[in-house]
# Entry
Amino acid sequence: MSAAQPAVAAHPLLEAVIETKRFGEHTVLEETLLRIAHGEIVSLVGPSGSGKSTLLRIVAGLDRDFAGTVALDGVVQQGPSAQLGVIFQEPRLLPWLTVADNVCFPARARDGSGKRAERLLEEVGLARIGGRWPKQLSGGMAQRVALARGLFSQPRLLLLDEPFSAVDAITRMRLQDLLLSITRAHGMAALVVTHDLDEALLLSDRVLLMAPPDGSHAARIVRETTVDTPQPRLRDAIVDGRLRSQLLADLAALAPTSCYAYPSEI
Ligand SMILES: Nc1ncnc2c1ncn2[C@@H]1O[C@H](COP(=O)(O)OP(=O)(O)OP(=O)(O)O)[C@@H](O)[C@H]1O
Ligand SMILES: [Mg+2]
# Structure
């Protein structure tokens, strides 16, 4: 398995160079280079514990305790940036704020932001619900609100950590379509952490595979796969069977044996 050689332009939107990331004595990530081009969608896949969320949090500026740099358009970042929108697996809405105020939260509800919140809610398919409370929303609606909040600062890069894994299959498809249409409409790039290979192949220009620690190495990116199939991609046909089989084989090779063993082998 070869190390990733990101094939993005000489002037990427994002360039994260992580020499090492430790939690206490434990080195979790090492020798990780992540580049994302303007407008590019990149998925990050890998077994549990391979450092996907750790890498995303570093890129988001939420974890600054690492050796390396994160640069946006060549400018080294020192923490969270309005150029980045972050969306997690759970919507993380504040229950004491209305839906509209949750969307405006990144701007702490400045003048005119209410109208902007309504426009963003409309864009994610939730017109006229700005006055509702988070507890009145379904999981899929709440995740759309989280997406609207992530878009509030007009970011250039969306960072999404398993964003659709807690919703039903149909809602998930709609949210995937929504992500594609929004990134296209705004010329935004996205980094999507997912365990779903079909989702990765549906959404992404590139899929990066992360390997968990193996005794001699910490977690790191070990393979880069370019998905050439033009968008829009068909959901009822496998996007690229050859790539899918290769990714599945790579994942199986990386995961602890017991995860993939038949019951008789455990
Ligand atoms: N706050 C923390 N303190 C100590 N160790 C941590 C912390 N966060 C993550 N780790 C460790 O770092 C490694 C990578 O974790 P991370 O959450 O990034 O994996 P992941 O690929 O996102 O996994 P999953 O697919 O299960 O979400 C794991 O070994 C985990 O135990
Ligand atoms: Mg994770």
Summary: Confidence is low (pLDDT under 50) at residues 1-6, 258-266. Strands lie at 14-23, 26-36, 41-45, 67-72, 75-76, 84-87, 157-161, 189-193, 206-211, 220-226.
